[in-house]
Amino acid sequence: MQRRYWLAVTLLFLLSASATAQQTADPHYPAPVFDQTPPALPKGLSHAVLIFSKTNGFRHVEHIPHSKTVLEDIAKAQGRATFTTENAAIFNPAQLSRFSVVVLDSASGDLFTPSQRAAFVEYLKRGGGLVAIHAAGGDKGQPWTYYVDSVIGARFIGHPNGADQFQRATINVTEPDDPLMAGIPGTWTWTDELYSFDRVPSGNDARILATLDERSYRMPPELAMGAVHPIIWTRGLGSGRIFFSALGHKPEAYDDPVYRRLLTNAIRWAGKMPVAK
């Protein structure tokens, strides 16, 4: 009897372990890691672009491998060195000082230790640039409220799902004279996972550069934001510049000439370089 009991317990344990392993193996949900040892940086690296795609939340495996390559190409075309990593321990004062721009390439979840958070904020306040893309916009599970409220300025609340997850929508540029919109059509159509937020960003010199026309696609009522549904915007923090675009779930987005031009402008602008007209 006792032997059968322990066989049953062992079987239940193995089944539970198997289910846990299957969940852990889902590449969209990597096991959270908090990095402690910084990576080694190349000698002489200066005024570079840091491309960072760490995910302790939902991981956009669809686009991250390709978008990293495209972002590296964009920076290099501007004559900037790049460093690509998913090691959050690079967020320390000494190493961040070697970068003009940090690109959060769908980085999501609770990524940083308290000291890494502090180093990131100080980097921005002292004049560093931030380009945050898609899932880097303050996901639902982001516990760092300072990032949500003071850096990005809004929290992601959802997007249409099921058959409506990817829809074609109209994007309207609201600041056509802003240098960031150089080479960007005043109105264009775009197919993507269309994000909604809990508020329209304001304060910290917020500028809404482009909005979604909610009449051009289907969404649940709880995701409606009304006449001003921001999708691309900028903010400031101290002397730093912050750019956010909610676009870019699919890898092909990064080959689109309009979106590639927007990211090119954003990296130049965040790094305080002139934006080509």
Descriptive notes:
With 277 residues, this protein is of the alpha/beta class. It has one domain (46-270): Class I glutamine amidotransferase (GATase) domain (Rossmann fold). The chain is built from 6 helices and 11 strands. The protein has helices at 2-25, 64-77, 93-96, 114-125, 145-152, 257-270, and strands spanning 48-52, 82-85, 99-105, 129-133, 156-158, 166-173, 187-193, 196-197, 207-212, 230-237, 240-245. The strands form 2 sheets. Strands 2-1-3-4-11-10-9-6-7 form a 9-stranded mixed beta sheet, sandwiched between helices. Strands 5-8 form a two-stranded antiparallel ribbon. Helix 4 (114-125) links the parallel strand 3 and strand 4. The longest helix is centred in the first third of the chain and has 24 residues, at 2-25. The N and C termini lie far apart (81 Å). The model is unreliable at 8-14 and 17-23 (pLDDT under 50).
Q: Specify the CATH homologous superfamily.
A: Class I glutamine amidotransferase (GATase) domain
CATH topology: Rossmann fold
Radius of gyration: 20 Å
- What's the overall average pLDDT, rounded? 92
* Number of distinct helices: 6
Distance between the termini: 81 Å
- Portion of residues within helices: 25-40%
Structural class: alpha/beta
Number of strand segments? 11
Sheet of most strands: 9 strands, mixed
Report the CATH C-level class.
Answer: Alpha Beta
| Shape category | globular
**Count of domain modules:** 1
List the uncertain runs. Answer: 8-14, 17-23
CATH architecture assignment name: 3-Layer(aba) Sandwich
Helix/strand order: HEHEHEHEHEEEEEEEH
Strand order of the largest sheet: 2-1-3-4-11-10-9-6-7
Beta-strand fraction estimate: 15-25%
